[in-house]
Amino acid sequence: MSTSTIQLLASDKLNGDNYGIWKSNLNTILVIDDLRFVLTEECPPALAPNSNQTVRDAHDRWFKANEKARVYILASISDVLSKKHEGLATAREIMDSLQALFGQPSTSIIHDAIKYVYNCRMKEGSSVREHVLNMMVHFNVAEVNDAVMNEISQVGFIMQSLPKSYFQFKTNAMMNKIEYSLTTLLNEL
């Protein structure tokens, strides 16, 4: 865990009133650290004795990522909530429980976040990393409030928001049918 991750997790611990902001910050951290997939993919079944190395590697990756995501979540919530949720096996179970406790979708917030995503355009010369992270924050705000926007759509919105100077990058991705994850796209740009 990097210092900036620790600072962000510690700065705004979940206490109930700040659920939306907390979840948005956590989602951003999980995307940057390439851990968010444990919230969207099912826990893999137990390994069979004759499983090949690729299956074993995917299984191990999921369990290591889940454990790291659990630590991030438990470190970023109040002590009372942490104690209550530490027995849950997956990060997804913890998030589902917290959503049930604190999540209240707001249609106006969803509308504003999606409107921002549709209309957002990066200005020439500005930081592409900041632009992508800003868009990810708005994706997270929409998701926190129960809007469904898959990662392929999110990558598409980011690609469309890039200025003309990224024409070659966008053309290359389209012509070669490159399917970026959010983390990979952020690193490639």
Describe this structure in words.
- The protein is mostly helical and 189 residues long.
- It folds into 2 domains: 3-102, no CATH class; 107-188.
- It has 11 helices and no strands.
- It has helices at 3-11, 19-32, 37-40, 53-75, 79-85, 91-102, 107-119, 128-144, 151-161, 167-175, 182-188.
- Helix 2 packs across helix 8 and helix 7 packs antiparallel against helix 8.
- The chain is globular, with a radius of gyration of 18 Å.
- The mean pLDDT is 85.
- Pfam families: Retrotran_gag_2.
Q: C-alpha Rg, in Å?
A: 18 Å
Strands, count: 0
N-to-C series of helices and strands: HHHHHHHHHHH
Structural class: mainly alpha
Binned, the helix content reads: 55-70%
User: Averaging pLDDT over every residue, what do you get?
Assistant: 85
C-alpha end-to-end distance: 23 Å
Which spans have pLDDT < 50 for at least 5 consecutive residues?
A: none
The largest sheet is: none
- Overall, the morphology is globular
Pfam family, one: Retrotran_gag_2
